[in-house]
Structure formats: structure tokens, C-alpha cells
User: Fold this.
Amino acid sequence: MITQVQIIEWLQAYTNVIEHHKEELTELDAAIGDADHGINMDRGFKKVRNLIGSLKGQDISGILKTISMTLISSIGGASGPLYGTWFLRASAIATDKQELASQDLLNLLQAGLNGVLERGKAELGDKTMVDVLSPAVVAYKQALDQGLDLLPALRVGVEAGENGLHATIPMLAKKGRASYLGERSIGHQDPGATSAYWLLRSLLEVVEASGG
Assistant:
């Protein structure tokens, strides 16, 4: 089970990761985008940090919906709508829940991915955050189908997401600002995929810290 407390710990952990790596994200974005991904993400998640104290009495759905609205209103560029949509769709899966079982987490991750696919119109292989989120969801589901519990299945999913992240390096960008560069986008890791990987990795680390 993933508890409401762990969801808040996850958001705190991810906020810290974004703050620590904002310059790296900006450098990645400078190569193929507007050089603002790290700055924008850090701005949004600083707002999240300020809200953490007020989230403790809410159910998981309420927490995720609050995060969604905060990110949409404070992150510029495409990242605000995409991450905001991810959290909004995820929140709908967690209505009235104080904890998530393994299948609940799958439903949440799938809903978030579906929202990003619909909002961003990107597909697997377009060199976007989808290249992390999609293989992670598929691998997590397969691991559950094979009988693994939540924590080991999540490890499998995050590993698949990491492989997807590395796979963006040789890709030709087909969506977003990076697509304007054509073949010059090849050879660079996608910044959105990078922040998406850290989103999943932060969740895994929180669950691991509690022993699953």
C-alpha cells in the first residue's frame, strides 16, 4: 500500500529533486528547447512546497488535484499543462482514498499517462516525457500480472522508465520546441523525459524507504 502520508512525502521528495537539478534540466533544455524547463519546474514546485502543510488532512485525490491546479497556474510553457493534467487525471483515480493498492497505483499511473497523451498529442518515440511514462506503466502492469507485489513491480516500472529516458538521446524530436531543430535534436536527452523519470524515481524511493 502507498499511504496518504507517503504521497505527501513523494511530493516533498520530488520538489527537492527539482530544486537540486534545476540547472541540469535547464542545460538539457538549452540544447533543444527554450532553456527554461528547470526554471519553470522549480517555480511550480516551490509553490507545491509552500502548500505541503495544508495537504495533510486531505485524501489522496484532494492532494493530487491541489497539486494539479498549482502547477497549471505557476509553470510556464508546455510543462504546466502537461504535469497539471497528469496530476489531475491521477486525482480522479484516487477519490476518497487514503491509500493505494498496487492496482490503484496502476490505474493512477495509466490515467496520468492518458492525460498527457491526450493533452500533448505525443506518441512513444517522439522524444518527450511519454517515452518515460509509457514504458514505465507497461512494465509495472506486466510485473503485477506476473505476481509481483507493489514495490518490486514499481522497481521494474521505474527501470523501464529509465531505459526510456536514455532512449530519448538518439531520437529525432517530433513534438514541441525541440522538433523545430530537426536532426539537430538527435544526441540530446529530453528534459521533459528527465523530469518525468525523476517523478517516478522519487515515488519509488519513498516507497522503498518505508519498506514497501
Q: What stands out?
A: The two ends are 7 Å apart (CA to CA).
